[in-house]
Design a protein that fits this description.
The chain has about 130 residues and is mainly beta. The chain is built from no helices and eleven strands. The chain has strands at about 5, 10-15, 20-25, 35-40, 45-50, 60, 70-75, 80-85, 90-100, 115, 120-125. The strands form two sheets. Strands 2, 4, 5, 6, 9, 10 and 11 form a seven-stranded mixed sheet that branches. The protein is globular and about 40 Å long.
Protein backbone atom coordinates (compact mmCIF):
# COMPACT_ATOMS: atom_id res chain seq x y z
CA UNK A 1 0.00 0.00 0.00
CA UNK A 2 1.28 3.43 -0.93
CA UNK A 3 0.18 6.60 0.80
CA UNK A 4 0.53 9.99 -0.83
CA UNK A 5 0.20 13.25 1.07
CA UNK A 6 0.11 16.56 -0.78
CA UNK A 7 0.93 19.90 0.78
CA UNK A 8 1.70 23.45 -0.27
CA UNK A 9 -1.61 24.57 -1.69
CA UNK A 10 -3.21 27.87 -0.79
CA UNK A 11 -4.47 31.22 -1.98
CA UNK A 12 -2.21 33.32 -4.19
CA UNK A 13 -2.63 36.33 -6.44
CA UNK A 14 -2.31 36.22 -10.19
CA UNK A 15 1.35 36.05 -11.12
CA UNK A 16 2.35 34.48 -7.85
CA UNK A 17 4.04 31.17 -7.14
CA UNK A 18 3.42 28.05 -5.09
CA UNK A 19 5.33 24.83 -4.63
CA UNK A 20 3.34 21.68 -4.07
CA UNK A 21 4.92 18.67 -2.42
CA UNK A 22 3.79 15.07 -2.41
CA UNK A 23 5.34 12.79 0.18
CA UNK A 24 5.05 9.08 -0.54
CA UNK A 25 5.36 5.99 1.57
CA UNK A 26 6.80 2.83 0.14
CA UNK A 27 10.24 1.31 -0.05
CA UNK A 28 10.44 1.47 -3.82
CA UNK A 29 9.40 5.08 -4.42
CA UNK A 30 12.41 5.48 -6.69
CA UNK A 31 10.72 3.09 -9.14
CA UNK A 32 7.33 4.86 -9.16
CA UNK A 33 6.26 6.98 -12.08
CA UNK A 34 4.55 10.06 -10.66
CA UNK A 35 1.99 12.51 -11.93
CA UNK A 36 0.24 15.71 -10.94
CA UNK A 37 -3.39 16.17 -11.91
CA UNK A 38 -5.93 18.86 -11.18
CA UNK A 39 -9.67 19.15 -11.12
CA UNK A 40 -11.60 22.39 -11.22
CA UNK A 41 -15.28 22.58 -10.24
CA UNK A 42 -17.49 21.16 -12.97
CA UNK A 43 -14.53 19.93 -14.98
CA UNK A 44 -12.85 16.60 -15.50
CA UNK A 45 -9.58 15.71 -13.85
CA UNK A 46 -6.69 16.58 -16.15
CA UNK A 47 -3.01 15.84 -16.15
CA UNK A 48 -0.75 18.77 -15.35
CA UNK A 49 2.67 17.17 -15.32
CA UNK A 50 4.22 13.73 -15.12
CA UNK A 51 7.65 12.20 -14.81
CA UNK A 52 9.21 8.79 -14.99
CA UNK A 53 10.84 7.06 -12.06
CA UNK A 54 14.28 8.40 -12.89
CA UNK A 55 13.08 11.98 -13.21
CA UNK A 56 14.70 12.33 -16.61
CA UNK A 57 11.53 12.11 -18.69
CA UNK A 58 8.87 14.72 -18.06
CA UNK A 59 5.58 15.79 -19.59
CA UNK A 60 3.65 19.04 -19.22
CA UNK A 61 0.19 20.01 -20.33
CA UNK A 62 0.29 22.81 -22.88
CA UNK A 63 -1.53 25.09 -20.48
CA UNK A 64 1.32 24.99 -17.95
CA UNK A 65 4.42 24.67 -20.12
CA UNK A 66 7.02 27.24 -19.24
CA UNK A 67 5.33 28.03 -15.93
CA UNK A 68 5.30 24.75 -13.99
CA UNK A 69 8.20 22.43 -13.19
CA UNK A 70 7.90 18.90 -11.89
CA UNK A 71 10.77 17.25 -10.05
CA UNK A 72 11.46 14.49 -7.58
CA UNK A 73 13.82 13.72 -4.75
CA UNK A 74 13.98 9.97 -4.42
CA UNK A 75 16.06 10.23 -1.24
CA UNK A 76 13.12 12.03 0.39
CA UNK A 77 10.35 10.03 -1.31
CA UNK A 78 8.92 13.32 -2.51
CA UNK A 79 7.76 14.79 -5.79
CA UNK A 80 7.33 18.53 -6.29
CA UNK A 81 5.37 20.82 -8.56
CA UNK A 82 6.78 24.33 -8.76
CA UNK A 83 4.10 26.65 -10.11
CA UNK A 84 5.05 30.12 -11.28
CA UNK A 85 3.13 32.89 -13.02
CA UNK A 86 -0.11 31.49 -11.72
CA UNK A 87 -3.36 32.40 -13.42
CA UNK A 88 -6.98 32.27 -12.21
CA UNK A 89 -7.57 29.34 -14.55
CA UNK A 90 -5.03 27.33 -12.54
CA UNK A 91 -7.50 27.28 -9.65
CA UNK A 92 -8.29 23.66 -8.85
CA UNK A 93 -7.70 20.82 -6.45
CA UNK A 94 -4.30 19.35 -7.27
CA UNK A 95 -3.64 15.65 -6.82
CA UNK A 96 -0.47 13.63 -7.01
CA UNK A 97 -0.58 10.07 -8.24
CA UNK A 98 1.80 7.13 -8.26
CA UNK A 99 2.20 4.25 -10.66
CA UNK A 100 4.16 1.45 -9.04
CA UNK A 101 5.14 -0.44 -12.19
CA UNK A 102 6.82 1.60 -14.86
CA UNK A 103 9.71 1.82 -17.26
CA UNK A 104 12.58 4.25 -17.34
CA UNK A 105 11.65 7.06 -19.67
CA UNK A 106 7.90 6.45 -19.42
CA UNK A 107 5.69 9.22 -18.10
CA UNK A 108 1.98 8.42 -17.84
CA UNK A 109 -0.69 10.92 -18.84
CA UNK A 110 -4.00 9.26 -18.02
CA UNK A 111 -5.61 8.99 -14.61
CA UNK A 112 -6.47 5.31 -15.11
CA UNK A 113 -2.78 4.47 -15.48
CA UNK A 114 -2.07 5.34 -11.84
CA UNK A 115 -2.45 3.04 -8.87
CA UNK A 116 -2.52 5.43 -5.92
CA UNK A 117 -3.76 8.96 -5.29
CA UNK A 118 -3.33 11.60 -2.66
CA UNK A 119 -6.21 13.43 -1.03
CA UNK A 120 -5.62 16.62 -2.98
CA UNK A 121 -4.64 20.17 -2.09
CA UNK A 122 -6.58 23.28 -3.05
CA UNK A 123 -4.91 25.95 -5.13
CA UNK A 124 -6.81 29.20 -5.57
CA UNK A 125 -5.49 32.02 -7.74
CA UNK A 126 -7.24 35.34 -7.29
CA UNK A 127 -7.49 37.89 -10.06
Amino acid sequence: QVQLVESGGGLVQTGGSLRLSCAASGRTFSRYAMGWFRQAPGKEREVVAALDWSGTSTYYADSVKGRFTVSRDNAKNTVYLQMNSLKPEDTAVYYCAARTTSYRGSAYLNAYEYDYWGQGTQVTVSS
